[in-house]
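Figure caption, in words: inputs first, then the predicted bound structure.
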Amino acid sequence: MKVRTFIVGCALVLALLVFAQHRPDSVSVSAFHEVIDLTHAINAQVPTYELSGKPAFQATTVASIDKDGYFAREISLPEHFGTHLDAPAHFAHGLWTVDQIPPERFVAPLIVLDVRAGATSNADYQVSIEDIARWEQSHGQIPPHAVVVAYTGWEARWNSVKDYRNADDKGVMHFPGYSLEAAKFLVEARNALGLGIDTLSIDYGPSKDFPVHQYTLGHSLYHLENVANLDHTPSTGATVVVAPMKLEGGSGSPVRIFALVR
Ligand SMILES: [Zn+2]
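Bound structure (zinc ion present):
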């Protein structure tokens, strides 16, 4: 081996030893100005719509590096858990299950409707046509085939199951959702592909018959619920990437959502 090759080889080995165990620094590696993760982490503390005796999320370590040479877990969780997607089949017979939604519907213009002004003082707030009109006065008409996400500010309660579900003495929950009129307008007049919100449900907490679910899923839109990090997501101009698990026959799925900001 030539001396120079040997020295270069030694330098590479040294570099490997120094850097191999390190996580990469979070330097910008993206072509975008910013990539915002609109997803809550999945763990046993995640607030759920239904309450049951046993924890909804369970993770069991089935292999560890010390014992087996590699680390792996087995997990169990509901389809509608954490930041998740409702497929049309969640409320309508014969419509798309989560694996059947065409992938081109998962990349779209992202519209963030800031409705905190109404939702902060009224837990039962429902996104209105006026909210949409106000947004359009500032930003222009919502483009067709967009994903529209309501920013209610409810995320501030995420770390408390009690505050996030906000159930009263009778067990009726109180958190903001969409009015049926606003949802109909976004479907019929603005051709939205999906609706999202930073609460447990697109229908507001006290709803018993879920009219918005019935209507929008029945029109083959999908929902994104428990969306995160809307506080620094632009109102318009970003592209959303929605990536649910491809669960065959699934009514929905935990989803990873990114806002790509140019
Ligand atoms: Zn759901």
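Residues 3-19 form the longest helix (17 residues).
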